[in-house]
Amino acid sequence: MAMSRRAWSWGAAFLLGALLWLVAYPIILSGFEGFTGPEGATLQYVREFFARPNEWQALWGSLWISVATVIVSALVGVPLAFLFGRTEFPGRRVLGALVGLPVALPPLVGVLAFLFLYGESGFAAHFVKWITRSETAPWRLQGAGAILLVHAYSMYVYFYLLVRAALERMDGAALEAAASLGATRWQVFRRVTLPMLRPSLLGAALLTFTTSLASFSAPYIFGGGFRVMTTQVLATRLNGDTQVAMVETIALTLIALVALALMGAVGDGNARGGSKGAAPVRHLATGKGRLFAMIGGWSLAVLLLLPHATLLLLSFVPVGTWTTQVLPPVYTVNNYVELVGSAERLRPLVNSLWMATLATVASLVIAVWAGHLVVRRQVSVRKWIETLLVAPWAVPGTVFALALATAFSVHQPWALRVILVGSLWILPLAYLIRNLPVASRPILAGFRQLDPSLEEAAAGLGATRAGILRRVTLPLLAPALGAAGALAFVTALGDFVTSVLLYTYDTRPLSLEILSSLRSGDVGVASVYGVLLMAASAAVFLLGSRHGDATG
Amino acid sequence: MTFLVLDGLTKRYDEALAVDRLSLAVPRGGILALLGPSGSGKTTTLRMLGGFEVPDGGRIVVDGQEVTGLAARERRFGMVFQHYALFPHLDVRGNVAFGLEMLGVRGADIDRRVRETLALVDLAGMETRPVDRMSGGQQQRVALARALAPEPRVLLLDEPLSNLDPTLRERTRRELRALIRRVGITTVFVTHDQEDAFDLADQVAILRAGRLEQVGTPDQLYTEPANPFVAGFVGRATRLDAVLEESGPDHAWVRIGEARVRIPGRRSASPSGPIHLVTRPEAWQLVPAAGASLRGVVTDRRTTGARAFLTIRIADGVMIEVNAAPHAAAEGAEVGLVAVDEGVHLFPRNG
């Protein structure tokens, strides 16, 4: 295969160029705008940024909301992980899987579901009004508290999933060893279990922090007067202060990058602890403990899944029939029937499906190509390729959408800028770029686990390069492809952050349609779209991860 | 003198009996091996001793104190796990000191005892090494040091040699034996490897399907197996179906296929009838085929250097393994067989 060295280097150069153009260039370009005034380079907008008290409020708001989200999510997710990872009770498996499902749900669906359950005119408020015989709503779901609640409700999943996975592969013998060395249950927990969970806890904390920092839907819908950076960027931009908006995106990106660097630094520890040994002992396996675990597990699961059940219920409620009753009085499948019957109603669904599919397939192709170049060929620019592939993770969606909107809104072919904004292609492209991290991580990992001698054996048996790819590499990568594809598809399908800045009427996706039906008070229709998004995400996610389990 | 007693120990999983009324006794400082195939209940027994499984019946007594109901941490037993179960977040010192800290040992005393224990397992000066950067053999010694540091009453080892490669295994076995003798600690270990059991233990208990088949010194098990299972499990052996025709004070007559064969050796008189005949390779001597009552054809020959193992077909589908001088017979040769003094065991066969 010596003859192909050069060709492969060209391939690497091409891929690197494409990634630089798609991932780095828009960000750099929009970064420059923050330092460019009518008379060339200037720090005027940076000074303006620091001079406005609003900006400081937003920065501070983003930071403390994110820290608080981490704390509250940990308080929900970690006990939940212990409950489902360390006890045994009827229904544990199914509930344990259900409780982890929100990881695959688009944030907007969570927000919507939360609104319908705990909002001023949601179920909880109706119920309280009915009990107190009051006419006015008992609370307003708005401001920092509301954002924090929604965040905790959707982001506990990171702590839950990571800690539970760590508990499940934890060497049970290490805990027995501690017990036989004289440690009490509390000492075992504090001196052995907790330190062994440290990498997972740190990883979950940083994931929650960056997600919360980039969170847009919750502050956008519940924020009210509360300022955070993501919504501030949008507001400033809509105000016409383009340059200040760019300075804001730079500030937000910097915080996110610092967090990502921290994640990389503690990520090293994640490799540890996966030793083979006795399976972890499930405590509380008998009598009273079992009963408590069951009651706790069931009630927590119901509490956490209630918003999504609400969404499902409301999708059967016709427009304008639910006003003051505790429960909606009328149920019908009309909302669904209308959806299928009307081309205009079906449009957003079709849009979302084809755009997400295109973006997913393209990101998988890029990821497999990159995996081959980085892991197999070990091309000299592999570090660059890898960094560019994960970089979109660090950049909040708002920032990225703004950068794309900036880069591809003028026609300057010499500067590699073409007009894409307003066209059919800007959203699939945005989804593709945003998908690169989720698609490439499992696939690169898959390539690393693949024994290169398998491909060599196929080559030795006379297979062509295409034949090797089709008959050996791709089938062996199937679990990674399944997981990567499912995650990428689900992310693109439910995207709201980038869509809200880049969509056109013709390409409006599900999330935007949900928002507009919500604004026009069409709760039933919004719920139908929400349920569809929820069902599609859950189905694809379960399918992808099951495939991953079966063959991996 | 008995220090550790297992009295009628029973463990049930769902309805299956994992350990069935197991009774054993170990003297102070004795080394007991629990030997058996997988599923024999040996690991369950060890885990009951360690306090990680609650027995459904029976008692465990140490030094006159019943510990059956005590939690693992209250027993003061030291356990070395099969995959060592070292704490990955602690270094060597942190691992070895763990049990001492639980005992309330503080400050300089901990340092001194960690140092002494590490010297004992030949890891002096390795205190600050991270445990996941050590070789398998070193990790095992850390695990041993961690178990020994709090001076437990009984040492429990789960498959102590199964994770080591063959060359390291033999050396480790010798070192382990020397160490246990030096410390003088009462030890119970589990193994599926007969060589490990015979080399390390004073007493070997052979388990099958949760029941004790036989307990004794390695010599006793080899020369006086209580049943065909023990005879077949310990050492190399061939098992044949035969018929006991008569038994006398110093020999017996047995029919193997067509041949009537004289088996020397003292054994209690037993009724004639169908038997299992279990033989060691060294129990037979080659003689010229002509005139011998038991004859066969050499079908396979493997040399170990000083001796050769011959597989001899004495009837269709009936093979017998014999140990002979390297050039005693070539493949395909017809030979005669005569039983010598020891190594043939006869057990009545029912039905």
Summarize the structure.
Chain A is mainly α and 552 residues long. Chain A has helices spanning 5-33, 44-51, 53-86, 92-100, 107-118, 123-132, 144-169, 172-180, 185-214, 217-222, 229-239, 242-267, 287-314, 334-341, 343-376, 382-394, 397-407, 426-449, 452-460, 465-493, 497-502, 510-519, 523-551; strands at 36-37, 40-41.
Gyration radius of chain B (Cα, Å) is 25 Å
Total domain units of chain B = 2
> Which runs of chain A of at least 5 residues are low in confidence (pLDDT < 50)?
1-5, 268-279, 548-552
Q: Note the overall shape of chain B.
A: elongated
User: For the record, what CATH class of the largest domain in chain B applies?
Assistant: Alpha Beta
CATH fold group of the largest domain in chain B: Rossmann fold
Question: What are the low-pLDDT stretches of chain B, counting only 5+ consecutive residues below 50?
Answer: none
Percent helix of chain A, as a range, is: over 70%
Radius of gyration of chain A using CA atoms only: 25 Å
- Range of strand content of chain B: 35-45%
Number of helices of chain B: 9
Structural class of chain A: mainly alpha
Q: Specify which chain pair forms the largest interface.
A: A-B, 25 and 29 residues
Number of strand elements of chain B: 20
Kindly list the characteristics that best describe this protein:
heterodimer; A: 552 residues; mainly alpha; two-stranded antiparallel sheet; 74% helix; disordered N terminus; disordered C terminus; B: alpha+beta; Rossmann fold; OB fold (Dihydrolipoamide Acetyltransferase, E2P); six-stranded mixed beta sheet; five-stranded antiparallel beta sheet
